[in-house]
Design goal:
Largest interface: A-B, 23 and 21 residues
Mean pLDDT of chain B: 92
Largest sheet of chain A: 5 strands, parallel
CATH class of the largest domain in chain A: Alpha Beta
Number of domains of chain A: 3
Mean pLDDT of chain A: 90
CATH topology of the largest domain in chain A: Rossmann fold
Helix content of chain A: 40-55%
Strand order of the largest sheet of chain A: 2-1-3-4-5
Number of domains of chain B: 3
Structural class of chain B: mainly alpha
Oligomer: heterodimer
Number of helices of chain A: 19
CATH architecture of the largest domain in chain A: 3-Layer(aba) Sandwich
Number of strands of chain A: 14
C-alpha cells in the first residue's frame, strides 16, 4: 500500500471516529432522560435483581420493588413501561435477556394481551420503552418487528414504518432539544423506585361486574405471550402471570380468563387480581378513570405479591444488603416529599396507607370530612391493619378497619384525633380531640379547647415538637418520619 | 426515505461500486437506481418502464430508419437520381417523424393525464380521482424525450443496450428533482467505470453536507412562516406579513431546490459522475433573463433546445418576423421570435408546475417581462453606451441585482399562492393594507425566536459563501486547503450543525422537496 493511501486511510478512520464520538455525545445529551432515568439502575447492574416485573403502566404503577425488598428481602426491578403492548413487552424483555442478564423469575402482567396491534401506546410510550437501550441486534430486530407493518400509525397519524430510524438513532427525535437542555441532561438523575412510579391521586373508578367467562385466544398479544413464556422456560426463568386489578370490562375479563389456559398449558402460576376482587378497594385505590392503581393500591398489590413470591418461589433474601438499604432511604425521602406540601387531602390520605409513615390526624368538630363518604373511606383506609384473610396473601385486605371512634365523632359532631403509630401498629381514636398517647415516636399530648388544638410530642423528657399554629382547619395532619420519629411535615386542609 | 437515508444509501452504493470489478460497475448503478425507485414507489415502476422501453425502441427505430435510408442511398448511389435520393431521404424522415411523434405523444400524454386530470376535473367541478404522480416522472420524461429528439436530429446514435439506457433514465440521484441530464454528457459517464478518487470523494461528501445544510437548516426552518401566511384565510395578514412571507419563500424555495441538487450532485460525485449544474447563485442575477439562466439551468436549457429554438424557427414565426421588419425595423424583427418564444416557454413551464391560474399567471408574468426586455434590448444598449460609467459602476450593479430580486419575488407570489386571485390580493395588500404591527409577533406567523436566530445565521453564512463563489472563490478547495485540525473542525462542526439545527425526524418528511410534486 502506498504511503499516501495509508495516510489517507488513517485520516479517514480518525475522522469517522471523531465524528461518531461527537454524534454519540450529542445523542446522549439531547435524548430525553425519562427512559434512561427509569431503567439505568437495572442496566448498570443487571445481575443484581432476582425478579423482573414487565407489562404496561398498570405494572409500573402497581408494584414497588423497594417495598418488596423492605418487607420480604426480594431484589426486584419494575421493568414495565407505559403503553406497552405484549409484543413490546416481549421485545424489551428479549433485549434485557440477550444483552444484560436473565432473572430467576419474570412476572408478566397480561393487561391488553387481547390487543391485535403490535403497538398500542403513543409514540412517546414507544420511545420510553426503547430509548434506554443502546443499539443492538435485538433492538434492531425489535424495531423491525414492531414497526415493520406499514399500516400502524402513531397518535398523529404518522406511520411507524416511517419513524423507525428515530428509534434506531434517537437523535432524529430529540435533536431539536439543544435549545432546552438543562443540568439533568448533562448529569441525569436516576429513579429511586427501581422502575416503579408512584401515582398520587384518587379518582372514581368506572363500574364493573365480575364475569368468569372465557373465550378463544384472539390477537397477536397471545402469540407473543406464548413466545415470551417459551423463551423464559428455555432459559430457565420461572414465570408468574398476573392480571393486575382494575375495574375491567367484560371483554377484558374474558380475555384475562382465557390466559388461564395458557398458564395451565405451560404450568406457570397466574394471579388474576380482577377475578380475585379482594386485594384493592377501587373506591380508595384508583388513580384515574382507567383505574391505574394509586399509592395505596400499589402498596396492597406489592404486599400481596411479596407474600406470594416468598411462599411460592425460591428467591434469595437480600434483607441485609447495604446498597438496597441506601436505596430504600432515598425512596423513603421521595415518599415523604410526596406528602410534604401535598395540597390534595385525598392524595395525602392515600399516601398515608403506608406502614412506614406514622401520622397524627385531627378533624375539627364541624369538619366537612364527616359528610364526605370518600374521605371517610380514605381515612379508614389509612388505618387498615394487618388483617389476613384465609387463602389471601394480603397484609392489607379490602376489609375496612373499624374506626368506631371516627364514626362516633362524626355522629356527635365532635372533633376527632387519630394517631397512626406504625412503630407499634396501634391506632388511637380520640373523640373530642384531646388525648395523651404513648407512641413509638414519643408521648403525644393533644388538648382541645374552644375549637383550638394544642399539641406536643415529648421524647425522653424532651419536647421534640409543639404545634404553633392554632388556627382552625377541617383537617390537620402531622407526618412522622418512621426512621427518626421526627415530625417530617405538618399539613392543614379546609374543604 | 429521509435525506439522511438517501445520503447513506448513496455512500453504501458508492462503496459497493468501487469495490466491485470495473466491468460490472454500471450494473451496480442500475441495480441501485431500480432498488431506490422500487423502495420509494413500487407502484410507479410500470410508468418508468413504459417510458424507458418506448423511448429506447423509438430511438432505435429512428436510428435504424435513418441508417437504412443512408445505406440504400449509398448502395444505389450510381442508379439513383438526385431527385430519387431526396425522395428516399424525405420518406425515411417522414417515417422517423411518425416514430418521434408517437413516442413523444405517448410519454407527454402519460405525463399530462397523470398530472392534470385532477386539476381539470376540479376546474369542471367534478371530484378528483386522486391520481398519484409517479416519482420523478417529469424529470425522467423530459430527459428521455430530450434524448429521443437528439437521436431524431442525428446528434448522436441511439443506445443499443436496453439496460444501459434504463440506467440513463433511472439514475437514482437525479430521479427526485433533476437535474435533467443530456445523454451525450451523462450516458458515457454512466457507462464508463470510474476509479476511486479520494479528492473527488471528499468534495462530493462536502457538497452533500452543504446541500443538507441548505435544505434542513434553512429551507425547512423557513417553511413554518411561509406555510402559515400563504395558507391563511384571505385578509388575515396584511402587506407586511406578505412581504416577509414571500422573502422567506424566496429563501426556502432556493435552499430547498438547490440544496437537494447539491445533495444529489454530491452523491453522483461519489461514483465519479458529474451531473449538469442546475443553479448558479440566481439571486445575484442582474436581470430576469440572467436569473433564468442561473435557476434550474437544466430545465431552461431543455426548453431552449427543444421548445424555444424550434418554435422561433418555425415558418409562421419567421414570416411574422419578416413582416415586422418592414413595419417596425430590423431590431424589433430580430427580437420578436425571442419575445414570443419566451412567452411560450414560460407559459409551458407554468403549466408544467400545474394547470392552475397561479402558475399560468406566473408563466405569463415571467414570459411577458422577458419578451418586453428582448424587445427593449436595443434601447438598453443605447442607454448603456451613453452612460458607460454609470452602468459599469458597482452601485448600478447592486441596483440591478436588487431590481431583479424584487421582480423575481413578485413572481414568487404567483408561484406560492394556491390561486392567481390570492396572489393578486396579497400583492394589493402590500400597497393598501400594510399592518406592520403583525411583524411584532413573529411567533404567531409560525416562526419562533430560535428559528429566527438559526435562520438569520444560516442565511448569513449562505450569503457570504455565495458571494465568495460569485467572485470565483472555490470554497470547497479553500476548506480542503485548511490546516487539518481546522478543516476537521469545520467539517465536523458542519455535520453537527445540520444534525442539531436541521428540521428532520419525528414524522417530518424532509425528503418531500418542493419540486418533488412537479
Amino acid at each position: 500500500m502506498k504511503k499516501q493511501t495509508l495516510f489517507r486511510l488513517v485520516k479517514a478512520v480518525c475522522f469517522c471516529a471523531l465524528l461518531a464520538l461527537c454524534i454519540s455525545t450529542a445523542t446522549r445529551i439531547t435524548q430525553r432522560k425519562a427512559s434512561i432515568s427509569r431503567m439505568a439502575p437495572l442496566l448498570e447492574n443487571p445481575t443484581a435483581y432476582d425478579v423482573l416485573f414487565v407489562g404496561n403502566s398498570h405494572m409500573v404503577n402497581s408494584v414497588y420493588p423497594m417495598e418488596l425488598w423492605r418487607e420480604y428481602g426480594i431484589a426486584s426491578y419494575n421493568a414495565a413501561s407505559h403503553g406497552n403492548s405484549m409484543p413490546m413487552t416481549y421485545w424489551t424483555t428479549m433485549i434485557l435477556f440477550n444483552n444484560y442478564a436473565v432473572p430467576k423469575l419474570l412476572v408478566i402482567d397480561v393487561k391488553d394481551v387481547g390487543s391485535d396491534s403490535k403497538l398500542i401506546g403513543s409514540s412517546a410510550d414507544a420511545h420510553m420503552a426503547l430509548d434506554c437501550f443502546p443499539l443492538s441486534l435485538t433492538k434492531l430486530r425489535a424495531i423491525q418487528d414492531l414497526m415493520g407493518d406499514p399500516y400502524t400509525t402513531d397518535e398523529s397519524g404518522n406511520r411507524y414504518a416511517d419513524l423507525r430510524e428515530e428509534y434506531v438513532f434517537t437523535l432524529g427525535k430529540y435533536h431539536s432539544r439543544w435549545n432546552d437542555l438543562n443540568e439533568n441532561d448533562f448529569h441525569p438523575s436516576h429513579t429511586r423506585q427501581k422502575g416503579a412510579e408512584m401515582a398520587v391521586g384518587v379518582a372514581r373508578p368506572r363500574d364493573y361486574d365480575i364475569t368468569d367467562s372465557s373465550g378463544d385466544e384472539y390477537g397477536i398479544g397471545f402469540v407473543y405471550l406464548r413466545r415470551l413464556i417459551e423463551d423464559c422456560q428455555r432459559r430457565g426463568v420461572e414465570v408468574l402471570l398476573t392480571h393486575l386489578p382494575y375495574p375491567a370490562t367484560d371483554e377484558e375479563q374474558v380475555t384475562a380468563n382465557t390466559v388461564r389456559y395458557i398458564a395451565d398449558a405451560y404450568g406457570v402460576d397466574y394471579i388474576d387480581f380482577v377475578s380475585l376482587d379482594q386485594v384493592v378497594d377501587y373506591q380508595t385505590d384508583c388513580f384515574d378513570y382507567n383505574s391505574h392503581q394509586n399509592f395505596s393500591g400499589a402498596q396492597k398489590i406489592t404486599d400481596y405479591l411479596g407474600r406470594y413470591l416468598r411462599d411460592h418461589y425460591d428467591l434469595p433474601d437480600h434483607s441485609g444488603d447495604a446498597a438496597w438499604a441506601a436505596d430504600y432511604d432515598a425512596f423513603y425521602e421521595e415518599k415523604l416529599a410526596q406528602l410534604d406540601g401535598q395540597s390534595d387531602l385525598k392524595s395525602a390520605l392515600s399516601l398515608l396507607h403506608d406502614d412506614t409513615v406514622s401520622a397524627v390526624i385531627e378533624l375539627s368538630e364541624d369538619s366537612s370530612v364527616y359528610d364526605d363518604e370518600t374521605l371517610m373511606r380514605l381515612l379508614q383506609n389509612t388505618a387498615r391493619e394487618h388483617i389476613y384473610e384465609e387463602d389471601a396473601y394480603a397484609k392489607w385486605s379490602d376489609a375496612l378497619y373499624p374506626l368506631d371512634g371516627l364514626e362516633d365523632a362524626a355522629a356527635q359532631g365532635e372533633a376527632c384525633l387519630l394517631v397512626l403509630d406504625r412503630g407499634s401498629g396501634e391506632v388511637t381514636q380520640a373523640v373530642g380531640g384531646s388525648a395523651q398517647v404513648t407512641t413509638s415516636f414519643g408521648v403525644l399530648d393533644a388538648h382541645r379547647e374552644d375549637g383550638k388544638l394544642s399539641l406536643s410530642i415529648k421524647r425522653g423528657g424532651r419536647e421534640t415538637y409543639r404545634q404553633k399554629d392554632d388556627s382552625r382547619h377541617d383537617v390537620r395532619m402531622l407526618i412522622v418520619d418512621g426512621r427518626t420519629g421526627e415530625v417530617a411535615a405538618s399539613l392543614a386542609y379546609d374543604l | 426515505m429521509s435525506l439522511f437515508t438517501l445520503a447513506a444509501y448513496g455512500m453504501l452504493c458508492a462503496a459497493v461500486y468501487h469495490i466491485l470489478p470495473r466491468r460490472v460497475r454500471w450494473l451496480v448503478l442500475l441495480a441501485a437506481s431500480y432498488g431506490f425507485y422500487a423502495s420509494r414507489s413500487l407502484s410507479s415502476l410500470p410508468f418508468i418502464l413504459v417510458t424507458t422501453l418506448s423511448t429506447w425502441l423509438g430511438a432505435l427505430r429512428i436510428d435504424r430508419l435513418a441508417a437504412d435510408a443512408k445505406a440504400r442511398i449509398k448502395a444505389e448511389k450510381a442508379t439513383l437520381s438526385s431527385e430519387e435520393k431526396k425522395q428516399l431521404k424525405a420518406r425515411a424522415r417522414s417515417r422517423e417523424r411518425v416514430w418521434l411523434y408517437a413516442v413523444l405523444v405517448l410519454n407527454f400524454a402519460l405525463l399530462a393525464v397523470l398530472k392534470y386530470t385532477d386539476d381539470v376535473l376540479s376546474l369542471a367541478g367534478r371530484s378528483a380521482l386522486g391520481l398519484l404522480l409517479p416519482l420523478g416522472i417529469s424529470f425522467y420524461t423530459f430527459q428521455s424525450m430530450g434524448y429521443l429528439i437528439d437521436v431524431y436530429n442525428g446528434k448522436y446514435a441511439a443506445e443499443r443496450s436496453l439496460p444501459r439506457f434504463a440506467l440513463f433514465v433511472s439514475f437514482f440521484p437525479q430521479l427526485i428533482q433533476g437535474p435533467i441530464g443530456r445523454y451525450d454528457q451523462l450516458g458515457p459517464q454512466l457507462r464508463e467505470p470510474h476509479d476511486f478518487d479520494y479528492d473527488s470523494m471528499v468534495r462530493g461528501l462536502m457538497l452533500m453536507l452543504w446541500g443538507l445544510f441548505k435544505k434542513l437548516v434553512i429551507a425547512d426552518r423557513a417553511m413554518g412562516l411561509v406555510d402559515t401566511v400563504f395558507s391563511a384565510p384571505a385578509g388575515e395578514y396584511g402587506g407586511a406579513a406578505s412581504v416577509v412571507a414571500v422573502l422567506f419563500y424566496a429563501v426556502q424555495q432556493y435552499c430547498d431546490f438547490s440544496g437537494g441538487i447539491d445533495l444529489v450532485t454530491g452523491i453522483a460525485q461519489l461514483f465519479g459522475i458529474r451531473l449538469a449544474p442546475n443553479f448558479k447563485r440566481p439571486y445575484f442575477s442582474v436581470s430576469l433573463a440572467d436569473f433564468w439562466r442561473r435557476w434550474h439551468i437544466s430545465l431552461g436549457a431543455w426548453m431552449r433546445d427543444y421548445v424555444f429554438y424550434p418554435f422561433a424557427l418555425t415558418r409562421p414565426v419567421t414570416r411574422l418576423s419578416k413582416a415586422a421588419k418592414s413595419r417596425y425595423g430590423a431590431g424589433f424583427a430580430r427580437a420578436l421570435p425571442a419575445a414570443l418564444g419566451n412567452i411560450l416557454v414560460f407559459l409551458l413551464v407554468g403549466l408544467w408546475h400545474g394547470a392552475t391560474s397561479n402558475y399560468i399567471l406566473w408563466g405569463l408574468y415571467n414570459g411577458v417581462i422577458l419578451a418586453f426586455s428582448a424587445l427593449m434590448e436595443p434601447v438598453y444598449k443605447r442607454m448603456n453606451a451613453r452612460l458607460p460609467r454609470l452602468t459599469a459602476s458597482k452601485g448600478f450593479h447592486i441596483f440591478r441585482v436588487l431590481r431583479t430580486f424584487v421582480i423575481v419575488n413578485i413572481g414568487w407570489f404567483f408561484d406560492r399562492c394556491a390561486r392567481g386571485s390570492d396572489a393578486l390580493r396579497m400583492m394589493s395588500a402590500v400597497l393598501t393594507d400594510w399592518r406592520g404591527a403583525q411583524l411584532a409577533h413573529l411567533s404567531s406567523l409560525g416562526v419562533s425566536a430560535v428559528d429566527l436566530r438559526v435562520l438569520a445565521l444560516a442565511v448569513l453564512l449562505l450569503f457570504f459563501v455565495s458571494l465568495a463563489q460569485e467572485r470565483g472563490v472555490q470554497v470547497r478547495e479553500k476548506v480542503c486547503a485548511l490546516w487539518l485540525p481546522l478543516r476537521w473542525l469545520v467539517l465536523i462542526g458542519g455535520v453537527m450543525v445540520v444534525l442539531l439545527c436541521g428540521v428532520w425526524g419525528s414524522g417530518f418528511n424532509e425528503a418531500a422537496f418542493i419540486y418533488y410534486q412537479f
